């Protein structure tokens, strides 16, 4: 099996590579950012990608976005995501196109070598490996309408709640204003905010966001 690893922690990257080597799995590239991950996938056409979620330069979702782009360029490419924390919105993004050849594990699982290697082999074979803690938190939050939002849409509505205009949101996220408008339209649809003025729907969307997030912040 040929694997590409994307992880900005030198120690973890080397540790995963060593674990794989010990069971006869070949790491064809080990990189520390999303751009190099995409380049490595294009060059090596691996049978599996193992990637962190947060990598340089912003340490938000670069690894996940690169993995999703890689799956677009190379359909059915198995991807195993390793994350420091449970991030349900990222798990939803990853699973949106189906669970075949997809894994999402907490990094602490790497400590259990046998369990980690089994997950690697299962995902590479087209199966799935979702961390039990991720499943539990996704289930617990399944009634929250915000869970339907992608990671980027969650960022957009968060900035909306701060009172930023579309232009300011675009500048903050380094995307076009048209992209912001598309994200907001998608947010309205997913939250079931139909016909009314855009301004009214924007207020209702922000109120929904605050209602669902403020209790978690104050607990």
Order of helices and strands: EHEHEHEHEHEHHHHH
Alpha plus pi helix count: 10
Please tally the β strands and state the result: 6
- Overall shape: elongated
CATH topology (fold) name of the largest domain = Rossmann fold
Category from helices, strands and their pairing: alpha/beta
Radius of gyration: 19 Å
CATH architecture label name of the largest domain: 3-Layer(aba) Sandwich
**First-to-last CA distance:** 46 Å
Largest sheet: 6 strands, parallel
CATH class of the largest domain: Alpha Beta
Number of domains: 2
CATH superfamily of the largest domain: Response regulator
What does this entry look like structurally?
The protein has 219 residues and is of the alpha/beta class. It has two domains: 2-140, Response regulator (Rossmann fold, 3-Layer(aba) Sandwich), CATH 3.40.50; 145-218, Winged helix-like DNA-binding domain superfamily/Winged helix DNA-binding domain (Arc Repressor Mutant, subunit A, Orthogonal Bundle). Helix content is 54%, strand content 13%. The chain is built from ten helices and six strands, in the order βαβαβαβαβαβααααα. It has helices at residues 10-22, 34-44, 62-73, 88-95, 113-124, 132-140, 151-161, 166-173, 177-190, 198-218; strands at residues 2-6, 26-31, 48-52, 79-83, 102-106, 128-130. It has a six-stranded parallel beta sheet, with helices on both faces. Strand 5 (102-106), helix 5 and strand 6 form a beta-alpha-beta unit. Helix 8 crosses helix 9. The chain starts with a strand and ends with a helix.
């Amino acid at each position: 099996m040929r694997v590409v690893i994307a992880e900005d922690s030198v120690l973890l990257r080397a540790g995963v590579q060593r674990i794989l080597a010990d069971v006869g799995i070949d790491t064809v590239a080990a990189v520390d950012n999303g751009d190099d991950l995409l380049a490595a996938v294009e060059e090596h056409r691996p049978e599996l990608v193992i990637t962190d979620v947060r990598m340089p330069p912003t340490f938000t979702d670069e690894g996940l976005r690169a993995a999703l782009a890689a799956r677009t360029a190379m359909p059915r490419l198995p991807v195993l995501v390793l994350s420091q924390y449970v991030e349900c919105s990222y798990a939803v993004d990853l699973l949106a196109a189906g669970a075949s050849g997809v894994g999402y594990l907490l990094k602490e699982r790497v400590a259990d070598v046998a369990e980690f290697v089994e997950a690697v082999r299962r995902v590479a074979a087209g199966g799935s490996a979702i961390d039990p803690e991720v499943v539990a938190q996704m289930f617990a939050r399944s009634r929250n309408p915000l869970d339907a939002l992608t990671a980027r849409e969650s960022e957009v509505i968060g900035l909306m709640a701060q009172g930023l205009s579309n232009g300011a949101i675009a500048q903050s996220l380094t995307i076009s204003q048209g992209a912001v408008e598309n994200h907001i339209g998608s947010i309205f649809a997913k939250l079931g905010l139909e016909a009314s003025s855009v301004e009214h729907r924007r207020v209702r969307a922000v109120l929904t966001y605050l209602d669902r997030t403020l209790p978690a912040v104050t607990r």
